[in-house]
Amino acid sequence: MPFSRIADSIGASATLALNAEAARLRAAGEPVIHLGGGEPKSRAPESAVTAGIAMLETGEVRYSPASGTPEMKDAVVAYTERFYGRKPERTQVLASAGCKQAIMVALIALVDPGDEVVYPVPYWVSYPDMVRLTGGVPVEVRAADGSCQPTLDEMAAACGPRTKAILLNSPNNPSGGVFDQDFMRGMVKLCEERGIHLLMDDIYHRLVFDGRQAIHGWDFTDRDLDDTPLVVLNGVSKMYAMTGFRIGWAVGPRALIKAMGNIQSHQTGGPSTLAQKAAVASIHGQQDSVDELRVTLEKNRDVLLGLVREIPGLKVERPQGTFYCFADFSAFDKDCARLAAYLLDKVQVVTVPGVEFGMPGYLRLSYCGPVEDAREGARRIAWALDKNGPAEYRVGDRVFTR
Ligand code: GLU
């Protein structure tokens, strides 16, 4: 029996599949280094843990309103006021099962079959299939200069009469790049003038390095939240190291938020109340863990970058945020999926092929794990790519040979 056209048009998330593969190898006792991961390994904030346990102990974990609990919405209101300088109403807030679901329901609410959604290359791995799940058409914008950041003009030229939304992720997964003020100002202007929704995937907005701050779309408009087509998407996963809680949110025009809530009411019926309780506590609680995480990630970046930059032929930009570095390995193998498979097979290092983000020839290397992993992973990669190097590489009693 055939499946639907939509089911046939999409594949599994490469990042999640690699997480599963790394976990399987580790469980089998293999000395695998997971540079493919996309989640911080620190503990969730104590406030979140305590609040979750307290709720669980009541033995009463009931349904959530489809668009989130009132206290979760209030927490997002407070968060938005504190970190974006805007104070939305509860009706302009939707809580979802992760930022991923918030993006997905926004797309379902906006896109009809054949409509287009525009985003820059490199893009987060799920964007194309998320657009396809709506029956929409993904439109990828590639920088003519080969860099990881298309220009404003390149973005504008890709928008046509069927463009319903532009998706931007800054800091960017996988490049770690941050859009500058002129670019963001231009994107907001373009979207307001043409009535295109600007979906800002801000999931890494507090993981920005070198003393910088993330730039937010709302900074470039005086309009009320209901009158600008800007939607901010965020969540607790990365900054609070709460990936498995699956709590994200959207803040935007209330009519769109209402439509998104209606859609969600027939999907999950609202995110877990237990997870929302923990998320609320993380938002209202001490924020030190976010700063500690950012500092740790910045150090990890420096270690990984320092080592990979010593590999002759490899090209990489300095990531300004996130916990990824996106390097051009095409001097070694233009087929990055084959190269990733080689590194896994030869030295047990998991990476994500750049083709999953729209840039063949690249590999994404994560530094969200322990710094020793970043160091050891980079060393193994350097050895595996150095055809004239030592014949073997030892890790404890494990010997990798050519
Ligand atoms: N966003 C992370 C990544 O890119 C997590 C995995 C996912 O949801 O795809 O690795």
3D shape: globular
Approximate strand percentage: 15-25%
Determine the number of helices (DSSP H or I, runs of at least 4 residues).
13
- Count of the domains: 2
The value of Rg in angstroms is: 21 Å
If you average the pLDDT, what whole number results? Answer: 96
Do you know the CATH architecture of the largest domain? 3-Layer(aba) Sandwich
Main beta sheet strand tally, sense and closure: 7 strands, mixed
Helix content: 25-40%
What class do helices, strands and sheet pairing give?
Answer: alpha/beta
The side-by-side strand order for the widest beta sheet comes to 2-8-7-6-5-3-4
Span from first to last CA? 46 Å
Name the CATH class of the largest domain.
Alpha Beta
The CATH homology group name of the largest domain: Type I PLP-dependent aspartate aminotransferase-like (Major domain)
Q: What's the CATH topology label of the largest domain?
A: Aspartate Aminotransferase, domain 2
Bound molecules: glutamic acid
Q: Tell me the number of strands.
A: 15
Q: Write the H/E string, N to C.
A: HHEHHEHEHEHEHEEEHHHEEHEEEHEE
Poorly predicted runs of 5 or more residues: none
Summarize it.
The chain has 402 residues and is an alpha/beta fold. It is built from 13 helices and 15 strands.
Architecture blueprint of SSEs:
Elements: H1 5-9, H2 14-27, E1 33-34, H3 46-58, H4 70-84, E2 93-96, H5 99-110, E3 116-120, H6 127-133, E4 137-141, H7 152-158, E5 163-169, H8 181-194, E6 197-201, E7 230-235, E8 248-251, H9 254-266, H10 273-284, H11 288-308, E9 315-316, E10 324-328, H12 336-347, E11 349-350, E12 352-353, E13 362-366, H13 371-385, E14 392-395, E15 398-401
Parallel strand pairs: 1-11, 3-4, 3-5, 5-6, 6-7
Antiparallel strand pairs: 2-8, 7-8, 9-10, 10-13, 12-13, 14-15
Bound molecules: glutamic acid (GLU).
The site of glutamic acid has 8 residues, from α2.
